[in-house]
Amino acid sequence: MARKQIILLVVEGPSDQTALEAVFERIFNRTHIQFYVMHDDLTADMNLRKTPQDAIKGARKTFLIQHKVDGFKEKDIKKVVLLSDTDGCFIEDQYIVNDSRYPGKFFYEEHCIRSSRINDVKKRNQIKSQRMRMLCGKNEIAGKPFEHYYMSCNLDHVLYGKNNLIDLQKEEEALAAALKYADDPEAFVNEIVLALFPAQSKSYERSWKFIQEGIHSLSRCTNLIWFLFRNNEDLDPSIRAIVMEWYLEQQSDGATDRS
Fold this sequence. Notes:
Blueprint: E1 6-11, H1 14-27, E2 32-37, H2 52-66, E3 77-85, E4 96-98, E5 107-108, E6 113-115, H3 118-136, E7 140-141, E8 144-152, H4 155-160, H5 167-181, H6 185-194, H7 204-211, E9 221-222, H8 224-230, H9 237-252
Parallel strand pairs: 1-2, 1-3, 3-8, 4-6
Antiparallel strand pairs: 5-6, 7-8, 8-9
Helix pairs in contact: 1-5, 6-9
């Protein structure tokens, strides 16, 4: 029997993998979802000494080195998918509030970012928004199919409805989510992927246009539905049925363009 191909899912932190790994293994049954944890946000790293495309290529190369014992080869990777937090990066400066209560961090609310370091927030937003705009328009990086999706304002916000968690809280919430959805992937799709899909997003491209408008990049939403739809041939049949039913309903309402 031929080895299943891999969708390499690049995420920022270990709690992202903890929360999503088990349920994605249930959602996708014709490909393996393999995670690569960057331990950083390549879209916001001000010290990044390479282009984001090179960082993605490097993640792919490092993954293969780390999993050499498993026999994975370049040909086994079907595509690379980057999952990014938006972190309010597309908001205008008027929604960045100077607040001395947050001297060493950025504090996220659904209508603003608070910090005493407002110039740092502005600089971060400029860099991160430019990189995310560039990456969402890429279909291929270094000869491999590439896709980019977002969690807004971040993964914690999407999955747990909470922002500004410390690392220990992130891991605790991630474990709880993993336990909740590992044996119920349909609930994950219905309660997270579909429930938090921006209704105005009629296509993958428009989902990115939506998140760049106003203060949407601080709101609780995700375009993960397009990840499932665009890779529906790899889904478990029960999940594929949910996704295709959603698509047909949206199409009948004139709400989606196939992308």
